[in-house]
Amino acid sequence: MDVVVREAGLLDVGAIAQVQVSSWRAAYRGVVPDAFLDNMDIDERAERWREGITDRPGGQITYVAQLDQVAAGFGAVGACRDSGATGVGELYAIYVSPEYWRRGIGRALHAACLDALGGQGYDGARLWVLEANPQARAFYERFDWRWDGTTESHAFGDEQLPIVRYGRRL
After folding, report:
1. Domain holding 26: CATH number?
2. Could you give the number of structural domains in the chain?
3. Angle between helices 42-55 and 13-27 (to 10 degrees)
4. N or C: which end of the chain has fewer CB within 10 A?
């Protein structure tokens, strides 16, 4: 069973939204407020992804990973959204449905995302991850991402949680 990674299209937005909601609920339970996770709306998420795929803000490229013709994960990259960032791309997201964790899907998405950033001419990349997400942090550290010491807060519903920034060369 090979993982197939391809650029996402409008027909994929429902599957991407489903992956996002299911992976957030599984990975972030106990970290992000339950009310926030329970209130995540697949249709609202699909609309956000529809806009991202159609409008491509920051040169956004979204990928879908399929296993046995089922959308098992997605990733998205583009220009870094940090204030003052120039010449740096950003890994916006990699999420895999919980039932497909530890099957190489995240690794395949990561490779496609970094290739895309390199193809867009970036020589470095950044990403943001919840500070209290050791699994994601370990995943990225295996691929030479390093925390650069920057921490900010991000709103998840009514609660502010610390996120940390990682960077790497491409």
Report:
1. 3.40.630.30
2. 1
3. 120
4. N
